[in-house]
Amino acid sequence: MTTHAEGIGETAPGPVVKERRPLGARIAERLSGGLVRAVLLVVGLFWLVPTIGLLVSSLRAPEDMSADGWWKVFTAPSQLTFDSYQKLLENSDITNSLVNTVLITVPATVLVVVIGSLAGYAFAWMEFPGRDWLFLAVVGLLVVPVQVALIPIAELFGTIGLFGSILGVVLFHVGFGLPFAVFLLRNFFAEIPRELLEAARLDGAGELRLFARVVMPLGGPAIASLGIFQFLWVWNDMLIALVFTKSGSQPITVALQTQVRQFGNNVDVLAPGAFISMVIPLAVFFAFQRQFVSGVMAGAVK
User: Fold this and answer.
1) Is the pLDDT of residue 86 over 70?
2) Cα gap 284→235, rounded to integer Å
3) What share of the chain in percent tops pLDDT 70?
4) Which residues contact 6 (CB under 8 A, 6 or more apart)?
5) Nearest CA to 254 among 145, 96, 147, 106?
6) Neighbours of 233 (CB within 10 A)
7) How many whole angstroms separate alpha carbon 23 and alpha carbon 268?
8) Do the Cβ atoms of 90 and 83 come closer than 8 Å?
């Protein structure tokens, strides 16, 4: 027989409560099925249709393009030719504009990434008077639209002799790209564990060495994401280039628009030029796709 003392402290087992999973986890589990993947694959193929159409059009003769649609090439593959790309290389306006686009995009991207990284580290981990107020001023610059500054900066560049030059376009892109770069990288660098930085300082690392050896490797995904955003923005820009460039400094976007205005039926140059203008940023994006995804996911987790 069980005594009363043996029963003291014993509790009857209660009903088993099933743990509820978060709503986001349940939705993600349901969306990871094969049907959803098939739908996403179809959507991706539809997204690629304009790119494929432009590629096929750039490989057809002008008379073929005026006769029927680009899909005709699947039943008549003999229409494919590289003559349009040969004419493109012989068009000095297009080739020079491609060089100008590189001369504008690469420095504007590198300067924004380098200066933004240094400023982001300073705002995150260095103590100096007025740091928080300066950061608030930088954040406030994010709401300034580009259109507001076009005329004042154009007048300023005309006064100092930079209007119509590649350097002027680069400086404009750097000036308007830095607020977002500083804001993004400062928030990312601020999440680095303080103990890691203090350990590096105890080992004798100065600020520059600490930035180069510790902060930069840890901030690689965010820096890569920023570089991709800035590269795509500058490469595809037309408004700023249309205002601040002249005939000798125009990028590919303005050069193609000029070709349309001057030669409405110059399709044999426009199609390959537009495809090259589009495929280069796509290649850059896919080349750094892993770093870009890592940066986006790191920002989402933090």
Assistant:
1) yes
2) 11
3) 82
4) none
5) 96
6) 19
7) 53
8) no
Asked whether 112 and 178 are in contact (CB, 8 A), the reply is yes
pLDDT at 300 over 50: no
- If you search the block for the tokens 């610059």, which residue do you land on? 141
Q: How far is CA 240 from CA 168, 196, 246, in A?
A: 10, 42, 12
Residue 285 CA to residue 265 CA, distance in Å, equals 32
How far is residue 297's CA from residue 302's CA, in Å, rounded to a whole number? 9
Global pTM reads 0.77
Query: Which residue type does 19 have?
Result: E
**C-alpha–C-alpha distance, residues 179 and 145, integer Å:** 12
* Cα 31 from chain centre: 27
State the DSSP H helix or E strand holding residue 173, giving kind and residue range, or none if neither.
helix 166-189
Neighbours of 8 (CB within 10 A): 7
Residue 299 — pLDDT band, cuts 50, 70, 90? very low
Model confidence at 202: pLDDT above 50: yes
